[in-house]
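Entry 14. Structure prediction run on the chain below.
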Amino acid sequence: MNIKQASEQSGVSAPNIRFYEKEGLLTPARRQGNDYRDYTAGNVRTLKLIRMLRMLDVPLPTIKAVLRGEQPLQQALQAQQTVLEQQAAHLAAAMQFCADLARQRPQAETLDVDACLTRMESPAPQQGFFSGWLQDYCTLTQVQHQRHFSFIPEGSINTPQEFTAALQTYAEEKEIQFTLTKEGMYPEFSLDGIPYKAYRNPGKYRDEICCDAVHPEQLDTGLPPRREKLLRIARIVLPPVCTFVAIMAAGWVVTGGAGWLWLAALASGGVLLGTLHGKVAVRRITPAAAPRLRSKRHSRYPHTTG
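Output returned:
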């Protein structure tokens, strides 16, 4: 067959076939009379093997050694696996660095480039299995807190000025930069460059201030989706499990038996229900619902103004 047919059957372009011939990876026979290349089924199989190894980024010298029988294919694949694992580790570190840096919402004019280069040139040693999961869990917790958080101010919130003062006090306590963009009972502001909207959640005795990121989709954990999903489940399950283990351990120390099993199970169930109820409450209490709650509170406490 000619080079066009060999290219169609092997999936290797004609220029690459000529290049492989020049590098000594392939030596097709020549037709008598016109000296044209005559490719055989064996040549096509060799081209397919070369194509497969090149898709694995195996270097041409290594492929040449394999085709000549100078290096076993298994040995070449094992060596390439080591190279790919090193590249994968480097890419994973680069992806994590990009995610960590993006969460800080850096600016080109103010970015500490020297600190970034130092971290990139002297990466931290590879973490163990549990420490890696723990760090990812902390990352997920931090990002979820950035997307939505709440706090209870010192006094009541009845005016826009008191709302602004409460937000500013919170920022000072957390040592984060606070910038007000719109004052009101539904103020808009930014914390360390992340824009937020806030609303008041009236309580029976004290108000709660809830803050939602304006663009939560931009606050990414940088974690693989499957890993992030597992960590979200763990964030719900771990508190009741830890409560159960702690009560059982205390009961075993005190009584030396399993008589506290019912108490541990009851407390764990309460913690789990509390966690789930908190998540549902966050979804239900939105800025649109806050005025209704506030009006109900005012009807109960006529002396309160707002």
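The first strand starts at residue 29 and ends at 30.
Filed with the rest of this week's runs.
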